[in-house]
Write a structure and sequence with these properties.
This protein is α+β, with helices and mostly antiparallel strands. 28% of the residues lie in helices and 23% in strands. The chain has 4 helices and 8 strands, in the order E-E-E-H-E-E-E-E-E-H-H-H. The strands form 2 sheets. It has a 5-stranded antiparallel beta sheet with strand order 4-5-8-7-6. The chain has a 3-stranded mixed beta sheet with strand order 1-2-3, with no helix packed on it. The protein is elongated.
Length: 196
């Protein structure tokens, strides 16, 4: 692919590239990738436009993909490369399940088959580099809106990330989890998370 930096700039002066043809850096993975997906092309086009308008904004999208195959809705967020554990939620025989890929305890990716709520939650959790106990990932009752543990978001509409209006307790729990993560990263010299 065409090698670009995080601002969609090529080696040629004043030339940008975006979409399936590019090979670009993918934070926080620390490697270069070539992604063939509509969401990547759209996000990279925005990055390229910002660069051309002299208001550069680095590529920050967590990779995600989808496909409808007859009665199956396949939705994937993140890249599972480097995983060391897979946690299943649901039974593949029912054609409705999710696979959560962890690497060193961190959620790297989610493959959701007819599980849109798990996919939506996965987008937020993978972006946050969340560490969720495997028992909770496997438990289909965990994280539902009626759960006692509100920070695991499982869908809805109305929020800028496509999530439901969450209420004070849920918003507070998410903010607390992100703040804790940022504090741990700044004390260890790692990069923080910028939610939004």
């Amino acid at each position: 692919g065409i090698v670009v930096d995080e601002f969609a700039r090529t080696a040629a002066v004043n030339v940008v590239a975006a979409g399936d043809c590019t090979n670009h850096p993918l934070p926080p993975h620390g490697r270069r990738v070539r992604l063939e997906s509509v969401p990547n092309a759209v996000h990279q086009a925005k990055v390229a436009a910002a660069t051309l308008l002299d208001t550069p904004a680095a590529y920050s999208e967590v990779p995600w993909f989808w496909s409808d195959q007859y009665d199956l809705k396949l939705q994937i967020v993140g890249l599972s490369t480097g995983y060391d554990e897979v946690v299943m939620r649901g039974d593949p025989a029912t054609r409705s399940f999710a696979a959560f890929y962890l690497g060193g305890g961190e959620l790297l990716a989610v493959d959701a088959i007819n599980k849109p709520r798990e996919f939506l939650a996965g987008k937020r959790l993978v972006a946050a580099r969340a560490r969720v106990p495997t028992a909770q990932l496997a438990d289909a009752s965990f994280g539902r809106p009626t759960s006692d543990v509100p920070w695991m978001i499982w869908g809805g509409t109305g929020h800028s990330m496509g999530f439901a209006s969450m209420g004070d307790a849920l918003t507070s729990s998410i903010s607390s989890a992100v703040s804790s993560y940022e504090a741990s990263q700044s004390s260890s010299g790692g990069g923080g998370f910028s939610g939004g």
